[in-house]
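Q&A log
Question type: sequence-to-structure
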Amino acid sequence: MNIVPHIENIGHSVATGVVSPMEIFLADDSNTMFKVPLKRQKHLCDNLAKTPLLHGQESTGVVIFPNDSDSSWGYGLGLSKAEVDAAKDGRIGVKGANKVGPKLVVPIVYGCVDYVYETSDRHHQT
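Response status: OK
Response body:
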């Protein structure tokens, strides 16, 4: 799956080192569709937010000026054959007996936008 984020700076400072990490997984029940994405997003983005700022880091991402936007880069997200097979066979998120009828499997993409600005000593996210 190809995803191109469109990121807009609605703040008053220049956002530097802007990155938007994303991941994908398959969901096949209400728990994995509604609760798991928030847990996975928190884990992914909190770990990035805890990373110490290094001098020159702002050059590793995109720079977006206030009231400007960027869609200059994209991501290719994929699933392994084992992940797809597990979803088809009902081995993810299903407890108890198999349900009758076609199985609904939904790809879920999650992530955040991480950035820094000149006077900050930490990561910021949305």
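Response note: The chain is about 20% helix and 25% strand.
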